[in-house]
Design goal:
Length: 195
């Protein structure tokens, strides 16, 4: 059971809605690029395999019948290897592109109006976690800050913030109640050194 000051489930929902509003376009662009490139490469890979299977390798007969037999037996592996290597390269390039789009969208600043509306929807606990996540006050709140806030809420950051406040309060009280230690004189230091 949640306590009244604990982060609410609808707080995460409000954060997700704001994040989605600011990242939807880049997600669509990323998905379209991935799908188009994948379809084009699928067609190109089929063409490469077909091209390799319809080649006439009789030219290798001049090198001997054993070479021609070897080429005719193993040429499909060459074309499939070429397709696999190119597929790995294309998949890695698409991964880099998607990561780039994601990181760029994380840097998108949130408008003041959107932050105002979001803060109205968030409970005090979630606002405190957002405040904790937003380190650099010289920069505006970005999509990345909101994403880190959602992650921090999932990881129970509010409870850790409360615990750290409690620890700080306990230490302050302990320091106030500790009697001052006597300061050592020059004679005391000499006695300590001789012991």
């Amino acid at each position: 059971m949640q306590t009244s000051d604990a982060p609410r489930l609808r707080d995460r929902s409000a954060l997700h809605k704001t994040i989605l509003r600011y990242t939807l376009f880049s997600r669509i662009i990323g998905a379209v690029v991935v799908v188009v490139v994948a379809l084009l490469w699928w067609a190109a890979a089929k063409w490469v395999i077909h091209f390799g299977s319809t080649r006439d390798y009789a030219v290798f007969d001049t090198l001997g019948s054993e070479v021609l037999t070897w080429v005719e037996r193993y040429h499909p592996f060459f074309w499939w290897g070429l397709v696999i290597i190119c597929s790995i390269f294309i998949a890695y390039s698409l991964y880099v592109f998607v990561v780039f789009i994601h990181r760029r969208s994380q840097m998108t600043p949130i408008s003041a109006r959107s932050v105002e509306l979001l803060l109205r929807d968030l409970g005090p606990a979630s606002r405190e976690v957002l405040d904790w996540v937003w380190h650099d006050r010289r920069e505006p709140i970005t999509v990345g800050v909101l994403q880190r806030t959602v992650q921090a809420l999932r990881q129970g950051r509010y409870e850790q913030i409360k615990l750290s406040h409690t620890h700080a309060q306990l230490i302050e009280e302990s320091l106030k109640n500790t009697p001052p230690q006597p300061t050592a004189t020059v004679g005391d230091k000499e006695v300590l050194h001789t012991i």
